[in-house]
Amino acid sequence: MAVTEIKYGFRITHIDNIPYIDRVGFVLPDSPYASTTYRSIGDQSVIAKRRTIIDGIDLTQYIPFYFGPRSVMLYVIQHGYNGVEKHKPEDIVYCVIKIADLIAGNVECLFTDGHALSAFTRFYDSQALPAVNRYVSCQDVYECYWKSENDTDLKRRKEAELLIKTSLHRDYICGYVVYNEEAKQRLLDWGIDTARIIVSKSYYF
Known about the structure:
By secondary structure, the protein is of the alpha+beta class. The chain has one domain. Helices cover about 25% and strands about 25% of the residues. Strands 1-6-11-12 form a four-stranded mixed β-sheet. A hairpin with a 2-residue loop joins β3 and β4. It is globular. The mean pLDDT is about 95.
């Protein structure tokens, strides 16, 4: 069944980070609660570019999520492109949060209609989050791929971001998506409820 409405935020991480994330949630790297053993899987060149101020917004003070699966970054990580360390899909986990929970909890956040570093992208504050589907296309963010001769802006729009200010408590994590049963078993061994784990190879490349 096709997804017709944006309801979730997705953040990918190395599976080794899950015990810490499930216990603490998400914090910035300079937080006193930050893990000293956290395994980063992102593109360090992109992370470096985000250390900038855009229209008065300091991106380093926000924890980024995507609105859909199969992100460009996931593709890069699975294939080891752009000098990024290659990781097997079973070592990558989606942490999933509900937009409705953020709204109900008055979580301080921003969101964009495309990649945050693009000059064409617009930013919206948390007051606009209930109307996110007016500003971000569900079809775009759930596209499996992003190359189109007829739509050269699709890649930017697919990378629309949900930006959580400073931290996000573990209670906002509604579940995890993993690649296979072996990855699920690792989460079960760490004490995570099976009802909070979904196995879906379609979320990977």
